[in-house]
Amino acid sequence: MSTTDKELRVGMVGYAFMGAAHSQAWRTVNRVYDLPARARMALICGRDTGKVADAADRLGWDAYTTDWRDLISRDDIDVVDVCTPGDSHAEIALAALAAGKHVLCEKPLANTVAEARAMTAAAAAAQAAGVRSMCGFNYRRVPAVTMMRQLVADGRLGVIRHVRAAYLQDWIVDPQFPLVWRLQKDRAGSGALGDIGAHIIDLTQFVTGQRITGVSAVTETFVKERPLPAGSSGLAATVDGSGSLDGSGSLDGNGPATGPVTVDDAAVFVARLDGGALATYEASRFATGRKNALRVEINGSLGSVVFDLERLNELEFYDATRPSAEQGFSRILVTEGEHPYMSAWWPPGHIIGYEHSFTHQMRDFIEAVATGSDPAPSFADALQVQLVLDAVTRSAEIGSSWTEVEPALAAVAV
Amino acid sequence: MSTTDKELRVGMVGYAFMGAAHSQAWRTVNRVYDLPARARMALICGRDTGKVADAADRLGWDAYTTDWRDLISRDDIDVVDVCTPGDSHAEIALAALAAGKHVLCEKPLANTVAEARAMTAAAAAAQAAGVRSMCGFNYRRVPAVTMMRQLVADGRLGVIRHVRAAYLQDWIVDPQFPLVWRLQKDRAGSGALGDIGAHIIDLTQFVTGQRITGVSAVTETFVKERPLPAGSSGLAATVDGSGSLDGSGSLDGNGPATGPVTVDDAAVFVARLDGGALATYEASRFATGRKNALRVEINGSLGSVVFDLERLNELEFYDATRPSAEQGFSRILVTEGEHPYMSAWWPPGHIIGYEHSFTHQMRDFIEAVATGSDPAPSFADALQVQLVLDAVTRSAEIGSSWTEVEPALAAVAV
Amino acid sequence: MSTTDKELRVGMVGYAFMGAAHSQAWRTVNRVYDLPARARMALICGRDTGKVADAADRLGWDAYTTDWRDLISRDDIDVVDVCTPGDSHAEIALAALAAGKHVLCEKPLANTVAEARAMTAAAAAAQAAGVRSMCGFNYRRVPAVTMMRQLVADGRLGVIRHVRAAYLQDWIVDPQFPLVWRLQKDRAGSGALGDIGAHIIDLTQFVTGQRITGVSAVTETFVKERPLPAGSSGLAATVDGSGSLDGSGSLDGNGPATGPVTVDDAAVFVARLDGGALATYEASRFATGRKNALRVEINGSLGSVVFDLERLNELEFYDATRPSAEQGFSRILVTEGEHPYMSAWWPPGHIIGYEHSFTHQMRDFIEAVATGSDPAPSFADALQVQLVLDAVTRSAEIGSSWTEVEPALAAVAV
Amino acid sequence: MSTTDKELRVGMVGYAFMGAAHSQAWRTVNRVYDLPARARMALICGRDTGKVADAADRLGWDAYTTDWRDLISRDDIDVVDVCTPGDSHAEIALAALAAGKHVLCEKPLANTVAEARAMTAAAAAAQAAGVRSMCGFNYRRVPAVTMMRQLVADGRLGVIRHVRAAYLQDWIVDPQFPLVWRLQKDRAGSGALGDIGAHIIDLTQFVTGQRITGVSAVTETFVKERPLPAGSSGLAATVDGSGSLDGSGSLDGNGPATGPVTVDDAAVFVARLDGGALATYEASRFATGRKNALRVEINGSLGSVVFDLERLNELEFYDATRPSAEQGFSRILVTEGEHPYMSAWWPPGHIIGYEHSFTHQMRDFIEAVATGSDPAPSFADALQVQLVLDAVTRSAEIGSSWTEVEPALAAVAV
Lengths: 414, 414, 414, 414
Known about the structure:
4 copies of one chain form a homotetramer. The radius of gyration of chain A is 21 Å and the shape is globular. Residues about 240-250 of chain A have low confidence and may be disordered. Chain A is of the alpha/beta class. Chain A has 11 helices and 19 strands. The interface between A and C is large, with 44 and 44 residues.
């Protein structure tokens, strides 16, 4: 830890999957990186007293509260870390910004474009007062992803022709998997599209430095009715044999109550990027055997790169400027000290895991806040992702017709 | 070779890339398989006397001719093998069928739906007289592909949810690569779409046993003007510094004459299959580093399969009915005697190559002809592929709007 | 964290590469696992006051000391964690055991068999008084490795015929890489053999449940003289342009002083295991391009497994009892909740890294100490590894002649 | 085919696995390559009249004979191709050379060093009369292997430090697999060692340009008694329920007769090469799941290469002179026209198979014979392999003690 005495007192809202991942990162970041400020895990917030108390103890937070408004109103909190489902992002983040707190908000930024626009406007206003905001597209900080962006930025791929992105999971293939919050539109906003599709939209725009301008899309819900859940954590859940969910479930005597799946199981779309690239995107929770397979391939006139999140320490790079008989996809083990973020970790070849992307994110966030600069991705960047999600949804509703992505500045310009 | 004295006298039209591949297969097939008839490489046809004479000598054909009508009119020819560019398929195949010859026609069946419909009708009519016809979608006979179909047919994948197909090459990334016939619409019909996209359309319909019902598509020509070629063979070519091509090239004093690229460099589309699967397709000649990367992944409710033509001896199979802790994609080396077509070849683990798919195709074709059954894929099957290509083209022309694939029976019904 | 109030106060000696890795694990273990005791990072020890003070602050230890004897003598320390180079393991561990402290000692257990025997005897004696000891072969706790052991133990591999193990690195290929302590026999005991060869000896004996009974070996030092180091951390170092190292370096006016490399750069040996398997082992720091490539393949009469530490979340398993046409190496992503150690981490497909093996090790150590059971690997297990290392060294000295591994019980029996 | 009228009339002895592979190559070579002579498949020889007649018909030979001495004595045979088991190589090849025939002899050259020395001496004597001889280590002609040699020869790997070679199969893991000729010392000479170990010895010496100078070895026969075979072809066989084999089998009333396995199931050895490299070799028929896994990795001071025969179209190349952050193993698809042997085949990415290595071998053999140069590997090269096999056998017999490889010139010098 650096010798600085500057402390950033963090208040985190939510303690499930993302809460645990963020906690591990807040706990680790100053132990690994020399930074101009120290994060203090000051306060955790959740609605259930018993559960949040347990979480505070287990995850190592100094205190807990059950009211996020309390968390925001406290003077001894500098940073608000929003780890709740998407339906509460806007309300919490807006309040936090209004209270002058720096905000780190999980992705997707919001459940609707309108919310995202409001958040972006609030962030821009707060910025003038030195308040920082960032959206948690953590995969930007996977070293191999950061390196892909550098290769593109350095011109190593030449003119980008193709982007091929898929984020594939299989955790709801079983039709008996219950109707958890991620399968309910009012909580999650959308299904695979917003949950994992948002990641590949942001990641490919980040890596290429290009923005998606239009899309043609299809979405699908393969299993339209599911049992109501008894409880869930992370992506796992158990089925509840009784009761209903928000009154919408069907109850009969022969089995567990069920309710309608109101989000997409899969979304696929073709897109164009403003630099001329043609792109395909696919997000699905029905890709049997694919657990967390975020895969991206980018082909340019001078080279190509390939990335797979299940092998996140590796980057494949094809350099078409090498002697032709020796060209091939090089499997680069992105674990050397000179690779992004890696000098702080272990010797070459000693791999890191999923959670490290959060530690890297906290590193950059802390540095930005402490030095008075703006971290990326900004809320405006996240709004752009939201606008793509919105175009995808609209295209799917009008028979896949080509649909322009609405400009981010439209509302701001008003 | 079997003890049969029955001989099938083959006349082949064309002697370039496909002609060489077919010759290797005709030469080999009876040396490897016991079949009810022997193929005789009787006659080869090409327009240039010197070149076709050389080809006959080099590839091992008994005789040659420069007139395909001569080839068809001869009594001592049983089979006509059409290996020319797509613009002459219909004329040659229709004449051959009319002359009572069995026809093997390279893919795509034709350059237009109208031609393909006419050929399909002619083939149906000829069938009544015992004349057989087949379209050369050779990849169906890659053992791993045949095995995929068997797994699906046996219910091992359950309900198919996703098809993910791409056929990627990179041989025209260089904008100085010349304007060969494959880049001219009047010769080739279309670009990547018909040349390699047709393969993945046929392959995925074959494997899944489902038909594509509708598409939403985008096509792109990245490099719109190219130098005129001096000559080409296979996929390679050299640039001609002088002259024009069909009068369409531009000539100036500063460089080689150029002409417009009139086909797509890449085509991407989303599709639905009649069994409920959602599919993505991509065909491109601009995927730097991908030489012949036909890749297919199919996800079903009980399992998944993955295939890559660059590793055509391998099949990845994920069986979701195994104990969950042991589930994983199994790399099956499809080289055992019990695998399709393989008992005739080498011991386990001794791999085969691209050309073997043609030998397997000739094996099945000879067997069908000799035993009086119909080989697959039929012209009707190939027409269905043509109809998908047509729907893709139409969708791309109307802003990617969802476009139904026209029924194959429509014209026949008239 | 569990509700227990039981605390294990840890004192760690050493703060370099292993010290950092252990710190991350002590810090994390109770945040992830529910355990019957909590680890407290109480005291860290190093010889240099400034450096150890910095390390305490950075790594998060409550206090520091520069005298390991002080650490051992304190009443408020329950566990001594030995992370120093091998030449001080015996002295520190023996003193700690004598003081009644539970001991976790890094591998290899010692630099000589005599030391390892003494430590094993002391551990056995201390055990009677409820004092626990463990050697830090952390790779046993990589989930895929633990799973391999379970597969073997469950009979899934049948009779084991072959073990094929290599641990390959390349960090000293450059002859200008300096003479760090790991290249000096008096500090490190041996070179690649003891540092990384020890890992594959332990790992393969652990997985197979068999012990190496004899070896035939060759060792090699490719670069016999190297520049003296200015400083080093982890596996990296810089060359010192002046000064000597322990008086053994050569000094001249033309370049940096150099000294002799007194350990092996590579060691290869053939071995037999007591269950009948034939094995090959290779440890090298000269395998260009291999960063941390610990690779193990085990072939049994019913199946095979393959593991690669650079892809530590994956296990390849070949099950020869499956239908023969479907047999293949399955790539199992060992990230499911039902896989060893994984239920506490992230959702399926979200990978872990190198450091997690230490967290798992601390989990098992804490549980054993808190519940009064003996953790594995014991000092006796580590002595067995030391005896194999010794047999390898002796075989290499006598022209590779077959050399029996000395029984572990020999000295104990006296 | 070239316009040459020069013909090489080939007489082949043997028609099993190797006979079929050679036939496919003789049939194909002039159809693919322009060569100064044409091979004519003139005469095939086998002991069983019916079987050899069938083979001649099936494989496409003009005539057959049951007496190899007849084949050698005929004036209309230019080349003798020896495809029999190793016990008859010496007799046939010596007679053929004495008769002035060019000889292509399958590997291993002979079953004993004495035979190999005699053959080498005869080949040297015949060479003076313009008679050519070659041993069939076909894997030298796999394009990726040839390319490896070129990379080494061009200095791209620098000083070679490590060779890691294994040839793994699993076709006799089942103890009920019968006692085919490859498991009988008097026929096969040795087991895995001579059959597949010989390949990796030759291949690594070829690629590195270095010779093995000494070895330390262990061999093992896991299954010591097997059922007598009813018949076998290739590597497959069926068990005979009656009769004995050479009188050595045991007969009882409870099962099929069995006989002793008189060769090794597996051989492992450590070796040194004359350029300073340290090497490990493993040949086994008990590596469950490995069908034909010839794997070689070579590490040099400037780079490394990796090859796997099951993916023979690929070469992995690590170039340590590239920018360090971009270093990685490049998967080169060795299918470009500029790669060795490949310009005659298909477009890039269209892979070749196992049999093509024989076609390449015949290409080089025909060219050498027609142009009056000596093909490689010579009998002297093959003798060197035999001497290594001999050293391995001797080392294994004397407790793995280091054993020098006898110089090839020793006998010649007498």
